[in-house]
Amino acid sequence: MRAEEAAARVSLWRGRPLSISPLSGGLTNENYLVELEGTKYVMRLPGKSTELLSIDRENEVFNTIAAASTGIGPRVLEHVPGVDVMVLEFIPGPTMSAKTLQSPRMMARMAQSFHRLHAAPRFLHDFNMFRLIDQYLRIVDENGVPIPDGYRDWLPNVGQIERAVGVAGLVEVPCHNDLLCENFIDDGAALRIVDYELSGNNDPCFDLGNTAQEAEFDQEMRATLCEAYFGNRDPRQLARMNLFALMSDVGWTLWGAIQARISTVDFDFRAYYTGRWERALGVLRSDRVDRWMTEASN
C-alpha cells in the first residue's frame, strides 16, 4: 500500500504502531489521517504526474511553512525530500462548504484570514493565472489533451481582461490561489486555510475573486466580501474581483481537462471542466465583462 510505504519514511513516528485512513476531498493529491497514541496528523502524498499541472513541490513546502507562520496555514511537522511526503498538523473543526460560507459573518472571518495570509513572509514563486493558462495550453498541445471546442477563440478576450486588471493592480502578496470551499477549516478561533500546492505571490484580488467563484457568491455577497477586506465597496477592486473570478473558471477549465487525462482520482473531471467552461461562457457572452473592464480601468 502506497500510504504505508510513505509512512515508513517518516522519522516522526518510525517504528511505532499507526492507524492510517484516507481523507476525502483531494482532487490532486492523496491525503491520509494518521493516528498515533491519541494524536492525529495529516500525511500528504503527491498525485500522479502532477508536474503536468505546473505544480512545484519545493514551492508548495516553502509556502506551506510560510503560511503556517501566520497561524492560518497548518504547521509542517516533517517533509521527506525526494518523495515529497509532508506531515502536517491536523486541524480539528468542520470543513467549509459554499453554504456555510455564504453569510456576512463568515465573509468577515474570511477577510480576516486573508489579511493574515497576505501578510505572510514572501512565498517562493509568483502566481499569474494568465501565464498559467499559457503553460497549460502548451501542456495540452504536447499531450493531445482534449479541451472544449472554441476555447482558443476567447483568448483575445482573456488578453483584454489581463490588461484591464493590470491598470489598478495591487502589490503582490502571498496568495493561496485555489480556494475551494473545502480548503477552509473552522478551528473555532479562525478560518484556517489548507493546501498550498498552487500558492504564490499574486494580486490579493485574485484570492477574493477565486473564493467568490468557488463559494458561488452573488454580486451582493461579492460586494460584502470586498467591503470586509478593503473596508469599503471599492468599485474598481470589486470589478477586478469579478474579472479574476471569471479567470478562475477560464484557467481551471484547462486544469480539469489535463486532470481528466492524467489523474487516478475517482472523480468526473470531464464534467468538472465542461461545467466550469459553460459557466465562464455565460459570463464572457454577457455585457458584464465590458462593464467590469471599464470599472477596473477607471
Question: In short, what is this structure?
Answer:
The protein has about 300 residues and is an alpha+beta fold.
Structure commentary:
This protein has two domains: 88 residues, Phosphorylase Kinase, domain 1 (2-Layer Sandwich), CATH 3.30.200.20; 200 residues, Aminoglycoside phosphotransferase (APH), C-terminal lobe (Aminoglycoside 3'-phosphotransferase, Chain: A, domain 2). The protein is α+β, with helices and mostly antiparallel strands and 298 residues long. β2 and β3 form a beta hairpin. The protein is built from eleven helices and nine strands. The model has no long low-confidence stretch (mean pLDDT 94). It is globular and about 60 Å long. It starts with a helix and ends with a helix. 48% of the residues lie in helices and 14% in strands.
